Every structure is written in structure tokens, then in C-alpha cells.
Amino acid sequence: MRYMVVIEEGPSSYGAFVPDLPGCIAVGETEAEALSLIEEAIQFHLEDMRDGGHQIPAPASKSTFVEVALTA
Hints:
This protein has 72 residues and is α+β, with helices and mostly antiparallel strands.
């Protein structure tokens, strides 16, 4: 399965979360570390859901960029 991951830069770290998997988050000192950790977190999250008898949600989130012009 391929889930969309959002990575946000904070003052001293990077956070990552998966919109389709509420509560599935990771934090790393670098963007690469956060991405690596969220991959692991997704695996654990899905295993926990399966073991708990919960339905695994299909990936549904999408992203795009919207460009806007700043006016003075």
C-alpha cells in the first residue's frame, strides 16, 4: 500500500504524519530521519490495526500544490 505522508519542519526537528492513518506520526532530527521513522510507524500502525481486528483503510489522501501571487 502507498500512503501519503506529510512532513513538516519545526524549529528543531521534522514531524511526519499520515492523513489516512490518524495517530500515525514520527519525529526526526532531519527530514530523511522523519521519513524513515514514519515508514516504520506505518508498518507498526497497520500491524496493530490488523491484530486488533480493525479494517485497514485504503489510501485515499492526495496532495497538490497551489501557487498564489502575493500582492504588495
